[in-house]
Design a protein that fits this description.
- It is a single chain.
- By secondary structure, this protein is α/β, with parallel strands linked by helices.
- The chain is built from 17 helices and 16 strands.
- It has a 9-stranded parallel sheet.
- α4 runs parallel beside α6 (111-121).
- The radius of gyration is 22 Å and the shape is globular.
- The N and C termini lie far apart (46 Å).
Length: 393
C-alpha cells in the first residue's frame, strides 16, 4: 500500500510538471490549467522611458522579449503614460490639445501595438503601465493647458519633489480630471490588444495636497466644516483616500465594461506609506475587487530591510485572494545592483509564496557591472521552469 501511494504521488508530481512546461497546442479552445502557483506567480519586468531604445527598435524589442521568454518571465509592463504624455498613438491627448506629437518606433510603428504583438507572440502577458497617474511635470502641456485641474497645498504651493523631480498633481477629486483619466485609460484598454492596465504609486495624492478651491468647497459641502489645517488629520486623510477609492471603483467598472477580462494591476508602496502619506488605500481596493493583482514596490538596499517588509500582514492577506508580487530594484544607469542582491531578494519572496517584478528591463543585464552571461544565468536559476499566465482577453 505504501509503495502504491509513493507511485501515485510521483505520478501526480510528474503531471503537475508537465502541465507547466508543455505549451498549449494550436487550436486548443481552452488551455489546460497549470498548478496554482504557476497560474498566479508573477514574473514581470517594467519597460520604462529609459528602455525607449529597446521599445522603438523592432529588432531590439524582438531580441529582448525573446530573452525574457527564454528566461521564463511571463509578464511585461510597458510604459504608456509618463510626464503628462501618452506613449501610444492617442486621439484623446490630441483632441484635448495636450500633446502635439506621437511617440513612434524607428519604422514609424505604434510602439504599444508593436510591444503587445511581439510580447504575445512569445507567450508574455502585456499589461500597459499608466506610470504617472495624477502626477505631471509643471511645464508639461497638460499642466499649462489646464491650470484649473491642478490641486495645491494649504500655503498655495502647487509642486512637490518626487523621484521624477519637481511635479504638480492633477486633482483626483475634480470631475474633469476624472473624465480625462478615464478616457485615456479606456483608449489604452479598449483599442489595443493588451491584457489590462497597471496603476502605480502615482495613482494617488500626497497628503499635503487637496486645499484647492474645488476640493475645499466639496469637503465643506459634505461635512459642513472647513478642511483641517493639519493635512495629517485622520478624518481628512480618510475623506480624500475614500474619494480616490470611489473614483477607482468607477474606473474599474468602466474598464471591465469595455473589456471584461482586463487585468487591473496595482503597484503601490507598502501600505502604511501608501495610505498615510499618499492617500492610496490599495488594501481596500484589493478587498473590494478593484485590483486583480498587486505588486508592492520594495526597493531596499539589503536583504534584512527587504525581508522585514515581506512579513507585512497586508501582503499575506493579498496573496490569499489575488496574484501578489513585490517590486525589486534591478538597477539604474547611475546605480547598478549586484546580481547576488537580486537573487537573495527573489529567493526571499519565493519562500513566502510571492511573485516578483523588476524595475527595470535594461538594468536586468545591460547596464550592469557584471557580464550579461552571469546575470542571465542567475535569472535562469531563479526561474528554472515556465510559469505560464494564460491570457484572459
Amino acid at each position: 500500500m505504501r509503495g502504491y501511494r509513493t507511485l501515485l504521488r510521483a505520478l501526480c508530481l510528474l503531471l503537475a510538471w508537465l502541465l507547466v512546461v508543455l505549451p498549449a497546442r494550436p487550436g486548443d479552445s481552452e488551455p489546460v490549467p497549470a498548478p496554482a502557483l504557476a497560474q498566479k506567480e508573477i514574473r514581470g519586468v517594467w519597460l520604462t522611458g529609459n528602455d525607449m531604445d529597446t521599445l522603438r527598435s523592432r529588432p531590439r524589442l524582438q531580441a529582448a522579449l525573446g530573452e525574457l521568454s527564454r528566461l521564463n518571465f511571463n509578464t511585461i509592463y510597458p510604459v504608456v503614460w509618463n510626464s503628462g504624455y501618452a506613449y501610444h498613438t492617442s486621439a484623446v491627448t490630441k483632441r484635448r490639445k495636450i500633446q502635439s506629437f506621437s511617440f513612434k518606433g524607428l519604422e514609424g510603428q505604434d510602439i504599444l501595438a508593436d510591444v503587445i504583438k511581439e510580447g504575445h507572440a512569445r507567450g508574455l502577458l502585456v499589461i500597459p503601465w499608466f506610470e504617472f497617474g495624477f502626477m505631471a511635470p509643471p511645464f508639461s502641456e497638460l499642466a499649462v493647458q489646464h491650470p484649473t485641474w491642478l490641486t495645491q497645498k494649504r500655503d498655495g504651493g502647487k509642486t512637490s519633489i518626487s523621484a521624477a523631480g519637481e511635479v504638480v498633481w492633477l486633482n483626483p477629486f475634480h470631475p474633469e480630471v476624472q473624465a480625462f483619466i478615464t478616457e485615456l485609460v479606456l483608449e489604452i484598454t479598449s483599442q489595443y490588444d493588451g491584457d489590462g492596465i497597471q496603476f502605480d504609486d502615482h495613482m494617488s495624492l500626497p497628503r499635503s495636497f487637496g486645499y484647492d478651491d474645488y476640493t475645499v468647497a466639496l469637503y465643506t459641502k459634505e461635512t459642513k466644516k472647513a478642511p483641517p489645517a493639519n493635512p495629517e488629520d485622520p478624518g481628512w486623510v480618510k475623506w480624500r483616500a475614500d474619494k480616490i477609492t470611489a473614483f477607482m471603483t468607477r474606473l474599474n467598472k468602466a474598464v471591465k465594461a469595455a473589456k471584461p477580462k482586463a487585468i487591473i494591476s496595482v503597484s503601490p508602496n507598502y501600505y502604511d506609506f501608501a495610505y498615510k502619506l499618499q492617500l492610496q488605500d490599495w488594501l481596500e481596493w484589493m478587498r473590494r475587487g478593484i485590483a486583480d493583482e498587486v505588486i508592492v514596490q520594495l526597493y531596499r538596499p539589503d536583504l534584512p530591510s527587504f525581508a522585514a517588509e515581506l512579513n507585512r500582514p497586508e501582503l499575506q492577506e493579498s496573496k490569499q485572494k489575488i496574484p501578489t508580487a513585490v517590486g525589486i530594484m534591478s538597477g539604474q544607469r547611475t546605480s547598478t545592483v549586484p546580481i547576488q542582491r537580486i537573487t537573495d531578494q527573489v529567493s526571499a519572496t519565493h519562500q513566502r509564496g510571492l511573485g516578483v517584478a523588476f524595475f527595470y528591463f535594461e538594468s536586468l543585464w545591460e547596464h550592469t557591472d557584471e557580464p550579461v552571461e552571469v546575470r542571465q544565468a542567475s535569472l535562469q536559476d531563479l526561474f528554472p521552469i515556465p510559469a505560464r499566465r494564460w491570457r484572459r482577453s
